[in-house]
Design brief:
5-stranded parallel beta sheet; alpha/beta; binds adenosine-5'-diphosphate; single chain
Length: 193
């Protein structure tokens, strides 16, 4: 099986690219979804987060207050690293299990979407990497449409490698500045290779 890792700058189109690939019957594991699973009530990671960050990050119904935790970790790199040490190994374990299932089923090509792919050194487990990128102006516009304030955008971008670095490290780049059809055509060509 050939395993692709898909990454890119925040808001540059990773989820959009993942959707395009799965619509073309390529199995896709999205670590954003896995990241939500590992902090669901009853999961050991949630208890570790409560111990590390206090009861204020847990809502009355026992679920994680994502907004409260995001405010803490995106303004404090030490806190962010503490959170990542709790969640990242568990997320990686989940996508590895998914990949093992694909291998057992003899799936020819699969893709894992990992926002912090290069930051976590995950490329060593992948056959090739794709970076979805666009201009900073388009990125800002897409993130503003998400309802994010300028400070929030700045903090979240600062928590990742600059996109230029991701582009340099990736095997392939999909430039997502135009229409969805242009993005799809690039992805089809990359996967065909
Ligand atoms: P990421 O997963 O990298 O954070 P998304 O795939 O969620 O980024 O894209 C961010 C926003 O930009 C979404 O609202 C998405 O619909 C929009 N978007 C992505 N690619 C395009 C495109 N080629 N044309 C128009 N809108 C796009």
């Amino acid at each position: 099986m050939k395993l692709f890792g898909l990454t890119g700058g925040i808001g540059m189109g990773k989820s959009t690219a993942a959707k395009i690939l799965s619509e073309r019957s390529l199995p896709v594991a999205d670590t954003d979804l896995l990241a939500r699973q590992v902090v669901e009530p009853g999961q050991p990671a949630l208890e570790e987060i409560r111990r590390a960050f206090g009861d204020a990050v847990i809502a009355g119904d026992g679920s994680l207050r994502r907004d409260t935790l995001a405010r803490i970790v995106f303004s404090d790199a030490v806190a962010r690293h503490k959170l990542e040490a709790i969640t990242h190994p568990r997320i990686r374990q989940l996508w590895r299990s998914q990949v093992e299932l694909w291998r057992a089923r003899q799936v020819p090509v699969g893709c894992v979407v990992i926002p912090l792919l290069f930051e976590t050194g995950a490329e060593t487990e992948l056959d090739a990497t794709i970076c979805v990128a666009c201009s900073t102006a388009t990125q800002q516009e897409r993130l503003r449409e998400r309802g994010w304030a300028a400070e929030q955008i700045r903090e979240r971008i600062a928590a990742q490698f600059p996109v230029e670095k991701k582009i340099t490290m990736a095997t392939f780049v999909a430039w997502n500045e135009g229409s969805l059809a242009v993005l799809a055509a690039q992805l089809e060509r990359i996967v065909a290779r």
